[in-house]
Amino acid sequence: MKAFHFLVLLALAVAFSFVSAFDPSPLQDFCVAIPEPKNAVFVNGKFCKNPNLTVAGDFSISGLNIPAFTGNRVGSNVTLVNVDKIPGLNTLGISLARLDFAPYGGLNPPHTHPRATEILVVMEGTLYVGFVTSNPNRLFTKVLYPGDVFVFPIGLIHFQFNIAKTNAVAFAALSSQNPGVITIANAIFGPSPPINPDVLAKAFQLDNYTVEKLQKLFANA
């Protein structure tokens, strides 16, 4: 019986460790990222710089006060500050993004972050935001104004849309040093090599001509 209790406790400990382990947890003050040493095996995260060689610049970046270009076809731009931009973020489990939106219609298209929850605060403008739950799919939406905050749970499809006639700016914090992003339309219609049009026609209840047209559009995205 004691052995059984021990195995149960061990199983629970392992389960909880997987639940809580998103990014590697630091075992020191910091682990400034460096490129992989020659012939090293990449497992997860980054290799660490010698702490004695670390400088303040490893923990800093400038320029998030500068508006980004929004003249693209979706009318938005995301400036992500992750571990590739600030090496000192390595193992700290957090990153930041500035989101710029063109006047009415600027859209950060439906997407997911496979490794992070996102918390967003609106600085300028008016955004219509939302996310969709896993099956059965339920939509949560809200109109946000300057100073408003909204949370997008990890892995769920979400979006932000500018509904005002002025530019909009928001900042987002993400619970990973490298949250990743999967933009739904690009992932479905624009991967290389492309998904068989018969599959997408059946999945989206479209004809093959429409699917192939979308594939050509997103292949150049």
UniProtKB/TrEMBL annotation:
PROSITE patterns: GERMIN. One of its GO terms (cellular component) is apoplast. Keywords: Apoplast, Disulfide bond, Glycoprotein, Manganese, Metal-binding, Secreted, Signal. SUPFAM superfamilies: RmlC-like cupins. Mn(2+) binds at H111, H113, E118, H158. Residues 1-21 form the signal peptide. One of its GO terms (molecular function) is manganese ion binding. PANTHER family: GERMIN-LIKE PROTEIN SUBFAMILY 3 MEMBER 3 (PTHR31238). This is Germin-like protein.
